[in-house]
Design brief:
With 128 residues, the protein is α/β, with parallel strands linked by helices. It contains two helices and eight strands. 20% of the residues lie in helices and 36% in strands. Strand 3 and strand 4 form a beta hairpin.
Length: 128
């Protein structure tokens, strides 16, 4: 256990404006995340997407990919509710996804990519 009580505060996606527009639509349609307050960052355009009162996804306009950034980042995982509703939204928006039932963890996991190419894992308590 960590002495700092650390947890993931937010994820940030830096992409061209047209990609960010699709990303914002995706997270609204699938998870109901809504844009909200975002401080001024010295002219850097973007928006924050909120789950309730928490800005969990930060979108930042960046017209070019920074080739100096590299690493082994693989995916983002979020805990969610309402598995059936999310599956319906994915299917009605023609979004391909994978599903795994983790019996040892009593959860169902859905995997898909958002419009920026970020791999997304959604975890739901298995209420069966």
């Amino acid at each position: 256990m960590s002495d700092t009580n650390a947890f993931i505060h937010h994820i940030a996606i830096a992409a061209p404006a047209e990609v960010l527009k699709e990303v914002a639509i995706f997270y609204d349609r699938i998870l109901g995340l809504k844009p909200g307050y975002r401080p001024n960052f010295g002219g850097v355009k973007g928006q924050w997407l909120y789950s309730g009162e928490n800005p969990i996804i930060h979108l930042m306009e960046n017209s070019s990919r920074d080739e100096t950034r590299s690493g082994y980042f693989d995916h983002v995982a979020l805990r969610c509710d309402n598995l059936g509703d999310v599956i319906s939204k994915l299917e009605s928006n023609n979004i391909k996804y994978g599903q795994i039932e983790m019996q040892d963890l009593n959860q169902v996991q859905l995997f898909m990519k958002d419009p920026s190419g970020t791999m997304l894992e959604l975890n739901f308590e298995n209420k069966v």
